[in-house]
Design goal:
Blueprint lengths: L42 H18 L6 E6 L1 H13 L5 E5 L2 H13 L5 E5 L16 E5 L1 E2 L4 E2 L14 E4 L16 E5 L10 E6 L1 H9 L13 E2 L2 E2 L14 H17 L2 H21 L3 E3 L11 E6 L3 H13 L16 E4 L6 H19 L1
Parallel strand pairs: 2-3, 2-4, 4-7, 7-8
Antiparallel strand pairs: 1-9, 5-6, 8-9, 10-11, 12-13, 13-14
Helix pairs in contact: 1-5, 6-8, 7-8
Length: 374
């Protein structure tokens, strides 16, 4: 006999970890589309680009002297640009505990072919021993492991008197977790994660120390034009004022501006962070009440409040059926674990997801479990 279905479904069943749900109340007709069809190098285009840059810095409360730039190819493009442009003069500590961090390690040793590289790693669900990071070395790490649901607890492992640079992939953390900006020399992210923006564009945030490295170091390998952040030994300041390296989508820029306006409206980055923490609490209560589901990150101190990864007491085939059942019922879309991660669920809890939608999802999780185990 089939288990009765819950009577209420999430109003927005989009729980994907990227691209993520659009902000509550999103309406594409509300976007300022005045720059569409215009050159991004026109005064109107440059003004729109400059505004998202300045608003990003203001909302994130970046320290004086930090620069924000828009670059191609999402967070991946932003990180690759930094790795190829800045690594080489010092040994590198690479910390990873999931697939994207492991990918940066692969690029550093297989593509850049650097030899002085220290691998500091942990399995899915765990955080490596970050005390092993050498302050004399450059360090590359993700703040939040999007595919493992494990985040850095804080920036205490980063020394204030460090000689190396800190290079942080924060794409599923920025706007959702407090970041110690004074300890981050390079930070990258993309619009389609926490803010639910559109893809294809990345953001690079540089500290003055990072700019000094760019202006004093020339890599031994050739750099494609799309990776170049300097010209004649000086930072290309235009990138950080709205003169992008290549042509951006002004529609995506307008969409990002809409997201930034929304963060301001709800109370700024602190409100965005709290909204995500409140969402995580919904799932924490559910897991505490059900023995068949658990967090991949058992330690709550390192548990992500955006990309929440869960293990389920089911076989791989049953988990696939579980996920398909929820999608067929329009109760939850795209909640399967990342392809390289342990089999399970991944439910996005960033601030663009509404708490009441997560609450409505919970009975459906129970229903799907009962269906596949009946």
């Amino acid at each position: 006999m089939s288990t009765p279905q819950p009577s209420i479904k999430p109003a927005v069943p989009n729980f994907s970890s990227g691209p993520c749900a659009k902000r509550p109340g999103y309406d594409i007709n509300q976007l300022d589309l005045s720059a569409l069809g215009r050159s991004h190098r026109s005064s109107l285009g440059k003004k729109a680009l400059a505004k998202v840059i300045s608003d990003t810095a203001e909302i994130l409360q970046l320290p004086a002297g930090y620069r924000v730039g828009i670059v191609p190819a999402s967070d991946t493009g932003a990180m690759e640009m930094i790795l190829w442009s800045m690594l080489g003069p010092r040994p590198v500590d690479i910390c990873y505990w999931e697939s994207f961090g492991q990918g940066w390690y692969g690029d550093i040793v297989k593509q850049l072919k650097l030899t002085e590289v220290n691998e500091i790693k942990a399995d899915y669900g765990q955080l490596p021993d970050l005390s092993k990071v050498n302050p004399d070395n450059d360090v590359v790490f993700t703040w939040n492991g999007t595919t493992s649901g494990v985040k850095v607890e804080n920036g205490d492992f980063i020394k204030n008197d460090r000689q190396g640079l800190t290079i942080c992939d924060a794409t599923s953390a920025v706007f959702a977790m407090p970041l110690p900006w004074g300890k981050l020399d390079v930070t990258t992210f993309s619009w389609q994660k926490v803010l639910g923006g559109e893809g294809a564009h990345g953001i690079i945030i540089l500290s003055p120390r990072a700019v000094e490295r760019l202006e004093s170091y020339i890599p031994s390998w050739p750099l494609p034009k799309i990776f170049r952040l300097t010209a004649g030994g000086k930072l290309i300041e235009g990138i950080f004022n709205g003169a992008t390296i290549n042509t951006p989508s002004m529609l995506c820029v307008a969409d990002y501006q809409d997201s930034l306006n929304w963060v301001k409206e709800i109370g700024g980055v602190q409100a965005s962070i709290q909204k995500s923490l409140d969402n995580l609490a919904v799932l924490e209560n559910f897991v505490a009440e059900n023995s068949w589901i658990n967090f991949l990150a058992e330690d709550p101190n390192i548990r992500s409040n955006t990309s929440v990864c869960l293990s389920v007491d089911l076989s791989d085939a049953q988990i696939k059926t579980f996920i398909n059942l929820l999608a067929e019922q329009h109760a939850a879309y795209d909640i399967g674990a990342y392809k390289d991660a342990p089999s399970g669920l991944r439910i996005w809890c960033g601030s663009t997801v509404e708490k009441h939608d997560l609450q409505a999802l919970l009975p459906w999780l129970t229903w799907a479990y009962q269906e596949v185990t009946a």
